[in-house]
Amino acid sequence: KKYRNRLCKHEHSKTGNGKRHTNDNPWSQSFSMQRHHHGQFTYSATTFSPNEYSINYDAAEAQTFADVAFTALPATPIVLTVPAAAAVGTYNYTLTVRNTVTGCVSTSTAKQVTVNGIPTITLGANPAVCRGTTTANLTYSATTFSPNEYSINYDAAAEAQTFADVAFTALPATPIVLTVPAAAAVGTYNYTLTVRNTVTGCVSTSTAKQVTVNGVPTITLGANPSVCRGAITANLTYSATTYSPTQYSIDYDAVAEGAGFVDVINAALPLTPLVLTIPAAVPVAVYNATITVLNGCNSSSTPFTVTVNGIPTITTGVNPEVCQGITSANLPYIVSTYRPDQYSIDYNAAAEAAGFVDVVNAPLPVTPIVLTVPSAGPAATYSGFLSVFNSSTGCTSTLYSFSVKINPLPVSSAITGATNLCIGDANKLYRVDDHAGSTYAWTVPAAISSKAFDANILLYTVRCRCCRNRQYTGC
Questions:
Q1: What does DSSP assign to residue 398?
Q2: Stated pTM of the model
Q3: CA 400, CA 314: separation in Å to the nearest integer?
């Protein structure tokens, strides 16, 4: 070759200002890259016009780095080919340049190429929050290759609900706190999360994640329950729910708890109705409480009341007695409590056989209660039970026993006594015997007027002692 015997000065290089510099090396000393197919090797200046370069790798060849025979020197940068499967690590090589016109070859410059790991993050479960909650926690359990920043990119549907992308920002310790718009509609929203190592410049692949906004459940209650004192349960009905609640809680106020009501915490929600427990000895009153339902999200509290009504009472008077043939009897009562407005009578079998008829929820009159007595009822004492009822509260009293006595009529018998009376006669004694052997006696009133005589016959009217309203006449 024509340049075979030429000498090349390797010990010095010359710059454009004419000065010599010892160990002047225009090449960058090392560089690092992500695990991609190419890396760039920059240089800032050359001397004596090299137009080719070569690369000689050391043990890096075990990772399939390939030497580069002399080839045209490009403008900076020199692009190095990096094996896609090269392990993370630092690999050594030497680079040489030459001027093909002069045949001079540079000394070899030792260089390195570092293959940095792509950072990763192991994310936890997709977070879910209740509508109205403004943050959600995205947990992660581990990272690799020391990422120190993260970014989030929401899709169009999420951004339409005002979810905002997060530019690369410092990666906190777990969890990553996501900002959730307070007015975001119920639904599942998609995003991707990326982490990077700002020292190496390496960026992870994007990980697809979701955040779910769950609906807050509701319950539509029926009428406030009302029970009679002594009842141990009350039914709280409901007509509808939203967002599928599975549990419920009840919080009674201090007055109710003081009366013995006990709070309910996260019990399984049954089909309607909810059966409330009523303390057995609870006083008559209206008690306040609130109910919440849950499906992972808690509803707002819905107030309701439980009314414990008093049991009506009545105090009856003397059991009535009537004579046979009388068709009514008065059962007086003295006082009542808790406003009964109806009454019922249940006669026993003997009374019903004699013609007494039960009474069911008849209007309760002002005292007395007028009983219907069968006109042909045999003389006897008949029993029944009286109860009173408050039609507003639905509460019924206990049963009050009473009796009705039908007295027999006296049997007509001869009246014994004076048959002739003179005007002015008085206090004459007359008697009549009834069928049972009893004797009824009466006297002629004093000062009988002669005008009361008709054809020498005086008509007297007498009243039987034992039977009211039954008159007998005799002469």
A1: -
A2: 0.67
A3: 8
